[in-house]
Specification:
By secondary structure, this protein is an alpha/beta fold. The protein has one domain. Helices cover about 25% and strands about 20% of the residues. The chain is built from six helices and nine strands; from the N terminus they run βαβαααβαββαββββ. α3 packs across α4.
Amino acid sequence: MFKLLSSANPKTLKSKKKGYLTFILHLAPSDLSGYDTCPKATHGCRLACLNTAGRGGMIKAGEVTNVIQLARIRKTKYFFEDRNGFLIDLVSDITKAIKYAEARGFTPVFRLNGTSDISWEKYKIPGTDTNIFQLFPDYQFYDYTKVLNRKVNDIVNYHLTFSRAENNQGAVLKAIAQGYNIAVVFKTKQLPSEYLGLPVINADDTDLRFLDPKGSISGLYAKGKARKDTSGFVV
């Protein structure tokens, strides 16, 4: 049904209990495809990346990849090599997703950086003078990012949560001053009550970061390879 989007991610499916259905775009992270989709990627986040979580990390003995990874690489090359075609397909998928979700009684929401950190606000939809958020002003988009100073303050339907890594503490403090919530991955079995003087909420309950209270830490439990992190990416 969808060329680019998916609604089958286990984390985003938790959003259904709050009445939302998240549609997510997974590209190949960092430079895995030969193109860089994560300009602020760190050693720690590469090792802990959720790109290999769940079915994305299920590789048969004797093989080096799987159909999910190949699909993400294919989509990423499509984005970089035929930008107009990609954006046209993205508009089509979002239009279909809205109809699909609303027909089932859910509010559709969209996360375009499931495993990437692309500044989507920069790209105009072919034949228009608007980006994807402006084209669908009545629908909520949200993402995580490590890129400060993105030009999104005037985009009321796009919510960004800033991601802490092992070497961006200075950027984290600037992000807090700019009003961002901060996503932090913790290794502990129980999330702390606060971090950097801000209250910690359990961000694994749902993926709906735009509903988090302002001025909070979005606490995430270490999963998969992140459980063995030694870089400092995981607190």
